[in-house]
């Protein structure tokens, strides 16, 4: 573990002096900004788009969209008009406040018009990742009682329309849709729809978005967020993304996942930034080109993506000019030191780690441009958030003791319910009003948090506690290893032994020598007891869309158990 601190490259930032602000900040300061300050009512659709369209930012570019075919720009004024039109299409087919409207389509500008239009009607939006297959789609529509689904002709085949009694209308975004009692042609109605729409002003505690996420057991759960979350989206856009008026911001996440909405839609637009959205599949050339062409200044992505770019090699990166970048951030999984080193090498920038979850709705523990960074640490809680390490009874543990990473209830963007499952919601909390994340971590004497793994993934081997993340990080530093997932395998003598699943980089083949070399590499880099006793090669490892290796799937393979819900797995 590298423990020396370094100063971040940005000397000035929107956060200023972290400690001073942490000591004095109250969320009420951020609330001043929104309409409820005057009227007691609010709407995310208005705050993200219309507020700017009605200001001197009306002609500023809100959205730079590109994919393999399209390359388009929309100003805040145009986003207002087009989301109003989409809202009118939805209103005409019966969407009203509180209804669940699910959106199951690839990233295109229309997805964003429709998502914003849904919010403007006070309805609750449920974004679904386009790679979901029929079972995953059905589970989510059924559980949420969705009234309307928006999709395209290609994905329509994966929607079991007849088996979903609550589903009244399916809005199809594509050419030549044949309408029937349920199917509605979007473009047919969109073209002639009115540009003016009466916003449905809602209470800040009214439902806004439903993101389904998997736990370790059972079906995916619907995490409900409310309009109040905007306070934290806004404030973290300033402090953590460090967005300023002239920034061009790109978040690579799909809106099917919380990063793609909280930080791909809400945060950047609440502060009126120009937002880049790239459709289509990942390709290193496309991604570098997106940065170069749009002159992206602030970039938010994930370690897996960085590792994929890293794997593509220096020859690709040399073709592009990335000098517009000022601030780069990461989320979703541990930021390996190797990735940080790569960032310094190719961008001359430190990648800033941020920690949060679907359930937390927004960033909570982060590295800010203005603070001393300890490489390997997730950083410190944002002002207004109290984080601690607690035991299973909710008692706070002293520094350097590993335990449950917990957050004091009451931050603005906290989930407000697990849809239809109040008992599941309650199970997140411990006495003392602690929200328990399910992650294990420790806090050092300076108040920095260090991620160790999911609580249920920590390995006990011969009485030693091993964080799988540390072993995985070490493994991927070996030149032959592309990806690694580490689990505890039950062992009659040691309790558990460490088993590593790895995929190899191109040009390597497993041999007894290589296996021994990898094992020694971990032994040397970490500790003898941290080296995997068993190594198994896979072509690729099971991952979630946000890039986390699904250790529970590896464990299930290993122990010949059912793999459980795979709907969040990358295709
Ligand atoms: O285990 C933590 C990991 O991702 C989990 C939350 O996953 P999800 O709800 O899919 O949200 C991902 C993006 C917000 C956490 O419980 N995680 C998230 N960020 C980090 C992380 N693990 C290590 N370091 C992080 N920065």
TrEMBL record:
Does this UniProt record's set of keywords contain Nucleotide-binding?
yes
Does the keyword Transcription regulation belong to this entry?
no
Q: Per its UniProt record, what SUPFAM superfamilies does this chain match?
A: Acetyl-CoA synthetase-like
A Pfam family per the record = AMP-binding_C
Q: Which residues form the AMP-binding enzyme C-terminal domain?
A: 470-548
The UniProt entry, under Gene3D superfamilies, shows:
3.30.300.30, N-terminal domain of ligase-like
Show where the AMP-dependent synthetase/ligase domain sits: 51-418
Q: Which UniProt keywords apply?
A: Acetylation, ATP-binding, Ligase, Nucleotide-binding
Q: What class of enzyme is it?
A: ligase
> Molecular function terms in GO for this entry?
acetate-CoA ligase activity
Which InterPro entries does its entry note? AMP-bd_C, AMP-bd_C_sf, AMP-binding_CS, AMP-dep_synth/lig_dom, ANL_N_sf
Q: Which CDD domains match?
A: MACS_like_4 (cd05969)
* EC number(s) given by UniProt: 6.2.1.1
PANTHER family recorded = ACETYL-COENZYME A SYNTHETASE (PTHR24095), ACETYL-COENZYME A SYNTHETASE 1 (PTHR24095:SF14)
Please state what the protein is called.
acetate--CoA ligase
- Identify the species of origin: Evansella vedderi
